[in-house]
Automatic annotation (TrEMBL):
Keywords: Carbohydrate metabolism, Glucose metabolism, NADP, Oxidoreductase. Transmembrane segments: none annotated. NCBIfam families: zwf. It is an enzyme of class 1 (oxidoreductase). It comes from Paracoccus marinaquae. It catalyses: D-glucose 6-phosphate + NADP(+) = 6-phospho-D-glucono-1,5-lactone + NADPH + H(+). It comes from the Bacteria. Belongs to the glucose-6-phosphate dehydrogenase family. This is Glucose-6-phosphate 1-dehydrogenase.
């Protein structure tokens, strides 16, 4: 199956922080791939903006090196030369006056205008103010802001208020790359485009849900940043909250940006406050071969968690009594992100001598090897009577769609193209961000008041023992973490 490529309108995209890591690793390579796919018109312009003093040619050379490294393209590829012709550069002083007049002269009035804030949140207000004061933007312009969207409710409100002084909500695209993953969007398709699952998608038939985001890397190299954040701010409050919302939300009346985001907001507001025993914090420790979190963070007194597991309850008719178990951590056994929906066991088994039926399970795998599988019970092949065995009905996107996965758009590619189209469905709204912080803040405050140290766990393990007990007390088990 070959995916259809629908070109976007002619656009000017300004990337603030264009010399930074995100631009090099994701934004520029992603734009190049969309150009090669025929989605970006050759008349479009991509303008880098950063503090570094350099001209267009130097920036194009820098972009060529990044694209060669992270998009796997050879430096002499003629398509790369064609793409580089779209690029320009302006040296900008985000908190001063330098470069803004030059930028205004480069941005066209007739094209779609998008401004990507790939910079620290502390600069969002300065850049937004100068874009408005220098007359670079109008009511049709769009801005893309990267997380973190604040570090608590107060700072999130302040950030939203800062952006709202110069842009309307429909112009602000708060990007969370998890929502751009193919499988995350397929979760909505599976739920709302198939009659098979939606009648069963409730507490009557679903026993529990597990959401796992496990990483094998530690925080070395970004320890000072991470130590001010921790797992709940870095992952739970945004990425995992979004996955939870997509699983638990009611069907929107239409696949429309505000309709979808209204339903997600209802889920967040229905989350029950966590009980003290429903959350486990962990911190990976040195094992003699590799450093522990305290070494990587360069803070021997740190109480910041590199792992968190929690039992979440949703107070509404659909989910009353069905727990959602969330866990995420660094330096775990394997790198994997998945959602597992475990259905209840049949109320009565007629196969007394064939083995106990196991619960059906729908597993949605976000990374690696995006895909889904549904575990069902069948008869074991062969003579000798009825013997039951559980097997997966597996659908990896690589197999089902006839691709090796290399031509599947990266999350950033898809989301940036949605910005150009003006489609906010996969972006977070301001009230949604604030509601997530309103639920998360009391958890963080309780940790800080308790003065308790995180539970230690070995690098390469599945996390702290206390997290296992969180499940065992409910007579459930975490799914094995494996690549």
């Amino acid at each position: 199956m070959v995916s259809r490529v629908i070109p976007v309108d002619d656009f000017d995209l300004v990337i603030f922080g264009a010399t930074g890591d995100l631009a090099h690793r994701k934004i520029l390579p992603g734009l190049f791939r969309r150009f090669v796919a025929g989605q970006i018109p050759a008349t479009s312009r991509i303008i880098g903006a950063a503090r570094t003093e350099q001209d267009d040619h130097a920036f194009r050379d820098e972009a060529a090196r990044a694209i060669s490294e992270f998009a796997g393209v050879k430096a002499n590829d003629p398509r790369l030369a064609q793409f580089l012709d779209l690029l320009g550069y302006v040296a900008i002083d985000a908190r001063g006056e330098g470069g803004w007049t030059d930028l205004k002269a480069r941005v066209r009035d007739g094209a779609v205008q998008a401004f990507y804030f790939s910079v620290a949140p502390a600069l969002f207000g300065d850049i937004a103010e100068r874009l408005a004061n220098f007359g670079i933007v109008d009511s049709r312009s769009r801005i893309v802001v990267e997380k973190p969207f604040g570090r608590d409710l107060d700072s999130a409100r302040a950030l939203n208020a800062t952006l709202a002084r110069h842009f309307d909500e429909h112009q602000i695209y708060r990007i969370d790359h998890y929502l751009g993953k193919e499988t995350v969007q397929n979760l909505m398709a599976v739920r709302f485009a198939n009659i098979l699952f939606e009648p069963l998608w409730n507490a009557q038939f679903i026993d529990h849900v597990q959401i796992t985001v496990a990483e094998t890397v530690g925080v070395a190299g970004r320890g000072s940043y991470y130590d001010k954040s921790g797992a709940i701010r870095d992952m739970v409050q945004n990425h995992m909250m979004q996955l939870l919302c997509l699983i638990a939300m009611e069907p929107p009346y239409h696949f429309d940006p505000d309709a979808v985001r209204d339903e997600k907001l209802k889920v967040i507001r229905a989350l029950e406050p966590l009980e003290p025993g429903d959350i486990v914090r962990g911190q990976y420790q040195a094992d003699g071969r590799e450093p522990g979190y305290l070494d990587d963070s360069e803070n021997p007194e740190s109480r910041t968690e590199s792992y968190v597991a929690m039992k979440v309850r949703i107070s509404n008719w659909r989910w009353q009594g069905t727990p959602f178990y969330l866990r995420t951590g660094k330096k775990l056994r394997a790198r994997t992100s998945e959602i597992a929906i475990t259905f209840k066991e049949p109320p009565h088994s007629i196969f007394e001598d064939a083995g106990a039926p196991k619960a059906n399970e729908l597993v949605i795998r976000l990374q690696p090897n995006e895909g889904m599988n549904l575990k069902v019970m069948i008869k074991e092949p062969g003579p000798g009577g009825m013997r039951l065995v559980q097997v997966p009905l597996d659908m990896s996107f690589a197999d089902a769609l006839g691709t090796d996965g290399s031509d599947m758009p990266d999350a950033y590619e898809r989301l940036i193209m949605d910005v150009i189209r003006g489609n906010q469905t996969l972006f977070m709204r301001g009230d949604e961000v604030e509601a997530a912080w309103a639920w998360t803040d009391p958890i963080i405050d309780a940790w800080e008041d308790s003065k308790r140290l995180p539970e230690p766990y070995d690098a390469g393990s599945s996390g702290p023992e206390e997290a296992l007990r969180l499940m065992h007390r409910d007579n459930r088990r975490w799914r094995e973490i494996r690549a």
